């Protein structure tokens, strides 16, 4: 198999570099201190916040957070690093942390929290969590992700559903196609669009976007139990088995309906293609909804949201969260605690999630004014939580460590970009790559 460079592999290598550098630095003089640690107390409470919310809809959501803090006289130092999925943001964060100057808060999520927790960089949020009763407020599936060795190290902001298909209904109608609800009907619709000279599926160029498509196909083919066996339990028989071969087969079939990019293209550019009538469908998490709204389209009406074909009623989750880096001055610590507390207030949860396209992590938030896609997402989350069928997103780092995630990214993206593809070989390759990355 052609082992071309991929962001996934780069990501795990860079984490290894952090580990090695952190180990070496234990034997070196202390790194340069930040201004506040060096005794120059900041004059007001301030948070420097690293995030990758730079698309139009995302910026609106980030402004809700900034506004909520500014109302409490906490300054906002914006540390935004463009790049959906957070690949570039994580690279910058690692270099700031290794040089001893991490920001006060960073958008960190999933298994990355465990890896940063293990390195000893994160501050405990247990006091805020006890006072605000996070254990009672949060669904267990979420609180467990926020804890490292039983202590809260991050505060969750939202719940994103990843297994969505976004549709421009006017283009579907033009091609005489109907809204698909299974992989079979998806391919029928895609073929009609292709025949009508309409790009069936818009897909950006990042590996994580290809894996977003792959994981929705995998959920459709495998169902939630076997998806978990493969991507959470990392069961080799499941990863190399007949069903996984079928996942690769269906994924391969999808390629015929995608204008595969050779130039860099963000997920938000793909969303814009739907708005501008240049492509009919997009597989993407519901952060795309923030983008459609920001571009003046009503999600659920002008741009439809339906579960990714074959995943009706199921829920792939991606939970955004903020973690806080250890700082020693009181003003920074107070600002961090206020930020963590603010994020879980009902008022913030409502305003932020309305802008972001996601749903609140608290179940007691007034959902009046949320669109039909969010209401469907909230109902599906609850149902899957009750049935124990929620599945974590692979592409978003919620299913496995960054090492395993990188191995999956490599196999999936190599397969997607190869001309000669053999689904049997790909499934075997996946099992082997995952095994060696564990
Ligand atoms: C984040 C979302 C964000 C998306 C695109 C995901 O990794 O969880 O909050 O909107 O990337 O930037």
Mind explaining what this structure looks like?
By secondary structure, the chain is an alpha/beta fold. The chain has helices at 7-25, 56-70, 87-98, 111-119, 126-132, 134-137, 140-146, 169-174, 183-195, 207-231, 236-240, 242-255, 267-275, 287-294, 330-343, 346-356, 372-387, 402-417, 423-437; strands at 46-51, 75-80, 105-107, 147-148, 151-152, 154-156, 160-161, 164-167, 199-201, 279-283, 304-307, 316-318, 321-324, 391-392. The chain folds into 2 domains: 13-158 and 320-374, Periplasmic binding protein-like II (D-Maltodextrin-Binding Protein, domain 2, 3-Layer(aba) Sandwich), CATH 3.40.190; 161-317 and 390-437, D-Maltodextrin-Binding Protein, domain 2. The strands form 4 sheets. The protein has a 5-stranded mixed sheet. Helix 2 (56-70) runs antiparallel to helix 16 (346-356). The radius of gyration is 21 Å and the shape is globular. It starts with 6 loop residues before the first helix and ends with a helix. Mean pLDDT is 91; it is low at 1-14 and 23-39. Residues 52, 58, 84-86, 160, 267, 287, 318, 320, 396 line the site of beta-D-glucopyranose.
């Amino acid at each position: 198999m052609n082992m071309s460079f991929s962001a996934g592999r780069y990501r795990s290598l860079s984490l290894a570099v952090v580990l090695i550098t952190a180990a070496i630095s234990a034997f070196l003089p202390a790194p340069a201190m930040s201004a506040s640690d060096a005794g120059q107390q900041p004059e007001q409470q301030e948070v420097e916040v690293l995030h990758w919310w730079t698309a139009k809809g995302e910026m609106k959501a980030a402004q809700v957070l900034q506004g909520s803090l500014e109302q409490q006289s906490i300054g906002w130092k914006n540390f935004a690093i463009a790049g959906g999925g957070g690949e570039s943001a994580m690279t910058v964060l690692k270099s700031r942390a290794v040089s001893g100057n991490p920001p006060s808060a960073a958008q960190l999520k999933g298994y990355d929290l465990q890896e940063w927790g293990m390195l000893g960089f994160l501050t405990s949020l247990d006091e805020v969590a006890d006072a605000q009763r996070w254990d009672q407020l949060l669904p267990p599936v979420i609180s467990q992700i926020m804890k490292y060795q039983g202590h809260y190290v991050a505060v969750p902001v939202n719940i994103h559903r990843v297994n969505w298909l976004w549709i421009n209904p006017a283009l579907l109608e033009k091609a005489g196609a109907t809204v698909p609800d299974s992989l079979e009907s998806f391919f029928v619709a895609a073929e009609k669009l292709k025949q009508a000279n309409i790009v069936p599926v818009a897909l950006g160029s990042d590996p994580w976007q290809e894996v977003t498509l792959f994981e929705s196909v995998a959920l459709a083919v495998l169902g939630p139990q076997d998806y978990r066996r493969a991507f959470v339990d990392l069961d080799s028989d499941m990863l190399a088995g007949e069903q996984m071969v079928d996942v690769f087969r269906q994924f391969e079939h999808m390629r015929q309906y995608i204008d595969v990019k050779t130039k860099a293209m963000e997920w938000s550019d793909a969303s814009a293609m739907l708005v501008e009538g240049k492509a009919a469908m997009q597989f993407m998490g519901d952060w795309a909804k923030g983008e459609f709204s920001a571009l003046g389209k009503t999600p659920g009406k002008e741009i439809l949201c339906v579960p990714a074909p074959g995943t009706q009623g199921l829920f792939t989750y991606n939970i955004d969260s903020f973690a806080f880096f250890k700082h020693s001055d009181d003003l920074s610590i107070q600002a961090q605690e206020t930020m963590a507390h603010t994020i879980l207030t009902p008022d913030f949860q409502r305003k932020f999630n309305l802008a972001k396209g996601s749903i609140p992590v608290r179940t007691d938030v007034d959902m009046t004014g949320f669109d039909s896609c969010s209401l469907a997402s909230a109902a599906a989350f609850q149902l899957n939580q009750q049935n124990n069928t929620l599945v974590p997103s692979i592409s978003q780092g919620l299913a496995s460590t960054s090492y395993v995630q990188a191995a999956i990214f490599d196999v999936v993206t190599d397969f997607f970009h190869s001309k000669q593809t053999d689904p049997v070989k790909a499934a075997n390759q996946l099992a082997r790559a995952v095994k060696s990355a564990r």
